[in-house]
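The records we work with from here on pair a chain with its fold. These numbers are not coordinates but entries in a learned vocabulary of local backbone shapes. To see the layout at work, look at the sequence and tokens printed below:
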Amino acid sequence: MNAVPRLSDRDRYARCIRASKMVSWDIDRDVIGGRTFDTSQKYLPDGLSLAPNFFTLSGSEKRFVSQIQGRTYANVFGLVERFINAKVLEVSRDYWLGDQVALEALVRFSDEELKHQALFRRIDKMIGETLPAGYRFDVDPDAIATVVLGKSTWAVLALTLHIELFTQLHYRQSINPDDQLSELFRNVFLYHWKEESQHAILDELEWERHDATLTAGERDKAVDEFIELVAAIDGILQAQATADACYFVANCGRAVDEVELRSVEANFLEAYRWQYIHSGVRHPHFGEVLHRLISEDQGMRIRAALATLQ
């Protein structure tokens, strides 16, 4: 059997450019298309919201949970894409006077990330028009980006690839048959995925390129910083799970005792950890790339840290 020739890195950058041009989309024309959100529908699919696990809730309450999570989804992506874009612009500096193909690929990546931020701001606003007042997302994207970008490039690129890969799983969840799922939110998953697929390739290329410049000690420190970043994301998710559970209780239309409130809060946190942590770190390709770059001891440290986030 003839071996399939491996594409050079330059060819992979060029392919990302071609794909970017081919799938390019517009927020109003392609994603929103004049539609609005309908509260008779779920905004996130069950495979992401884990709404079936909210055992104490009725069907309509589980639908409300998916709508709350849909708004948080928009806010979380608006948050993470702020630091992703900044890091992409930073690493593109290495190509300013060099490989213009790689530079174009990264510039297009940055432009698309700016568009995604605009998309999720729109989605947040549109969902806000359909849900009761009182929703809170008290996180400053610039402040979080400053903290994240203070870590090593290796750690930030690891976190970024993990994020880009879990958007692919999110898209797959959205195409499962479900006539109760918002078609508008299906479009959000679809068009976001179309561009993030190229971004994941570029993340991997840049992560491996940067890894090759590190000493063993620098890489070991970077592994610890990656663990710190995941823990920081989890801290944000814990706070948001509490806020969203309280928002649900304030607006579900019935009395909820303290025991049920804590159960709902735990369910929100389980869903958010699945959406924004475990669905990425358990992605087979993330594990494959990570395994190529780290030692067994470093892998054990990462697994031990993730095991605490259950």
Remarks:
- The chain has a mean pLDDT of 95.
- The radius of gyration is 20 Å.
- Residues 51-307 form a domain with the Ribonucleotide Reductase, subunit A fold (CATH 1.10.620).
